[in-house]
Amino acid sequence: MTYLGKKVGIVCCGGDESPLGIISRKATLMVLRRLRRGTTTTVCLPLFSTGDEDYRLFARFYPTIAVDGCGKLCAKNVTSAMSAKVVTSISIEDFVERLGLDPSSAASDTLVQKVAEEISSAVDSILAERGEIEPEPEAEDEEGVSYEKCACGIDLPVQTLVVGGKPMKVRALPLIFEESYKENEGLGQIMSLVAAYNPIPEGMERDVEESVSEAYKRFLKKMIKKNRTTK
């Protein structure tokens, strides 16, 4: 099952003090609202940088584009440091220099359009390369997987486990399992990711780990069976 949907997150520069920061936001809004509406979503940089779990979760499991106004590359660096490396980084400063434009004209509609087209092209390249499809939110399956919307408006998988005799929802667990399987990571790394995106009640750490371990064993059995049938 494919959980990564046909969405690309755009992490936009938040600088108000320069025309290039302003143009990055205007161009991003043009992409979100007009040029690539439906296949893009915004990742709020201020909330992301303060550790918002929804945005960090999205940026780890969905491809992102950083759009920075200046050479500090705040959007790119914050995303890479707090979640995952961005797929594409666009610097408005470099873009303006490459086109031989005057930075003082950065607020012009023509330049906004050009930057928006550059972002749109990056979105198309990412989706074409990954061949992603929209996830279809569905009722909870036999493994207790359902979908809940994150702050980005995206349906993210949530798996319900029985922990200490009570149901507990673990956000992004199917995605964590898939990533760990591909990277051949052990239970320790899985639990680090689980704890990064889910509050674990004090004193329940061992119970949660046992439930996650059992769920991962079931996941591995499914993958082994799937691999056998595809050979």
Weakly predicted, low-confidence segments: 133-140
Estimate the mean pLDDT confidence. 82
Radius of gyration, rounded?
20 Å
* SSE string: EHEHHEHEHHEEEHHH
Report the end-to-end length measured between terminal Cα atoms: 18 Å
User: Strand order across the biggest sheet?
Assistant: 2-1-3-4
- Helix proportion: 40-55%
What is the number of E strands?
A: 7
Number of helices: 9
Strand content: 15-25%
CATH class of the largest domain: Alpha Beta
Total domains, how many? 2
Pfam families: DGC
Organism: candidate division TA06 bacterium
Protein name: Zinc-binding protein
Topology diagram in text:
Layout: E1 8-12, H1 19-35, E2 40-43, H2 45-49, H3 53-61, E3 64-68, H4 74-82, E4 88-91, H5 92-99, H6 109-130, E5 145-149, E6 155-163, E7 166-171, H7 173-183, H8 187-197, H9 205-230
Describe the structure.
It is a single chain. The chain is an alpha/beta fold. The chain is 51% helix and 16% strand. It is built from nine helices and seven strands. Helix 1 packs across helix 6 (109-130) and helix 7 runs antiparallel to helix 8 (187-197). This is Zinc-binding protein. InterPro entries: DGC. It comes from candidate division TA06 bacterium.
